[in-house]
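Handout, section 3.2

Students often ask what a structure token actually looks like in practice. Rather than define it abstractly, here is a full record for Methyltransferase domain-containing protein. The first block is the sequence as you would receive it.
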Amino acid sequence: MTADPHSASPDTSPEEFWDNFYSAEDRVWSGKPNAALVRETAGLTPGSALDLGCGEGADAVWLARQGWRVTAVDVSQVALDRAAGHAASEGVGDHIEWQRHDLSESFPAGTFDLVSAHFFHSRLELPRDQILRTAAAAVAPGGVLLITGHAAFPSWVPDPDPEFHFPTPEEVLAGLDLADGEWDVLVSDVHVENMTAPDGQPATRTDNTLKVRRH
């Protein structure tokens, strides 16, 4: 049975939930990097990158192909194993370190020139603001924190949950609680992405992006 990310029993651990989610299909995502990652890293000098919630590894693989040394993190070992296979097939396996973390409990050590968190949403309880503040602390001087999230349900959802709140870029920035005078906001916007719905028809999804640089 396909795992439904909109429901889980209260005693299901994040690792179990997401392992079940990824085990339900041979491949869940497209295998292509997120458009915002490609767009917002253009012009950055490759260095060390941290990919939070890497899933099946498309962003990590793309970054490695651009010359980044990537630490890629997910709570699901199933996803990490699949991602490692993708990286090996693309010839960049030695440029990526895969780490399993429940980010509410542990976080990769070190600092990074790029910290990337794309679509870091969960129907399970998740201390999102706390994790993103830890992510900001992991940005090296001169480095960039890039956060992309959904701003609304995709166009193909017929009856979206009116109680579900997607944070705005301004709310994400406020939640980071960044020190005054130590960061520059480079991008804070909402944008529409063209995509294909599950039934193969053209569709759209509204997302938002926050990009900040540490001095």
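Discussion prompt for tutorial groups: Confidence is low (pLDDT under 50) at residues 1-7. How would you have guessed this from the sequence alone?
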